[in-house]
Amino acid sequence: MSQEKRKPRTVDVLPSDGGWGWVIVAGCFMVTICTRAVTRCISIFFVEFQMHFGHDYSGTAWIHSLVDCTTMLCADKPLTLTLKIVTSGISHQHMFSSWQCCDSSPLGSFIGNRFSCRVAVILGGLLASTGLVLSSFATSLEFLYLSLGVLTGVGFALSYTPAISMVGAYFSERKALAFGIAMSGSGIGTFILAPVVQLLIDYYSWRGALLILGGFVSNLCVCGALLRPIVLKEDEDEACPLARDSECGFKAPTEKEALQTKMDSERCSSSSSSSSSCSVSSLSCFQSLQEYSFLLMPDFLVLAGSFLFLANGCSLPFVYLVPYALDVGVSHHQAAFLMSILGIVDIIGNITFGWLTDRRWLKRHRKLCYMFALGMEGLCCLFIPLLRTFALLVPFSVLYGYFDGAYVALIPVVTSDVVGTSQLSSALGVAYFLHAIPYLLSPPIGGWLVDTTGSYTATFFLSGFSLIASSLLLFTAAVVRRCHQRQPRHGGANGAQAAPTGDPCCKSEPADFYSPKNKDMMITNTPATTS
Q: Per the CB 3.0–4.6 Å rule, which of 16, 55, 58, 171 could disulfide with 448?
């Protein structure tokens, strides 16, 4: 009896799509406010830190860099929740929610698996709150590096992932709606917190503002207490996800392959303990190699290079928009309101652009839409040096926020088109890791440019050209691929179309397939029929 009482209360049911699940959604909504929105508002403290400690732009920028990088570096491998979302009836315009929630920190995974998601979120809340409170007593910039950059960043990483995963556990049919509400806390929280943080700085100084934020972030512990553990029954009738052939697109596993997999698992379970351990270890190594086989795909290598340019450019405006606005004479409250506009329009861009690219007439051009969003975001950054009043900076915040949300909505879709749904989880994990490196280095580099040149022009040019380079890299690869595919078709003396080379992938057209249960549209490549 004593052991049974120690066990956490669990519910062994299928997702109820309601009930306590909406409490989980509300808790996750608060978690995204306390983590992602607070992280964005750290840039409001930039000028305060710089003036108080007397450091240059480059040294001050390390604080924001460490918060973002600590959270990203803690992102190891996305949860398999992403794959379940894509294959369980959720349309592609809602995949942005799954991308944002799928980073799973190794420390958070260990605590969540060893204890529970509730413990992980509560522990993360304690660490993040402690980091903010300690930062209010900082005596040097190096102190802030550890307290606000590392300690608070680790706390955010611990809290964010388990809370999001609990939403997926409680919902099935309404999973898209649940994730949409939960993830909207990032933009709505930024919209509300940005002016509030500036008011706190005006009334209580930056130390008092950080102390109050520490108390506010401690609500993560309350949110964690709401995460009631749940044990889900396996739904055997759920449609199996389609595996991706690295050359010819998607393909469904045959009955022979499924039977062979089952026989292998039974053979491992019936063998002796020593041989079983050896077999399981070998199988685990083989699965790990197969899981990351997409790293050798040329298309993914191009996409990875694009992610590096993207992360290098997108982080700079969030760090330097408020300092730039203050430098050109905008008031503190108006500069904070620019961040509010960025936050709320980001959510609008997520939803509307995702919905538009899910329409049938744009579905085949999603990658082109992704390139367009990146290019427009880069152009916005190039025009910032000409915008020197609040009235001109407001349209920039609107446009940049919209296209920032637009490309975020398409990242999981574009990645899925390259590696397939079967490897999407691992591919997004690599994408998070690739984002971490520029997130750490680009803000200090931008600060160094400000210190060297005496203006923000070079910093925003670096941001704009990086985003445009990310778009042009993908566009160039697409043009080269199209030219390479057209070469075999013009062979022969009379200019007739060349005969097929035996590789069915050389002649393929996208076709739409649906899973048998959920009728979720999947894009696959099938050989074109010739008359």
A: 58
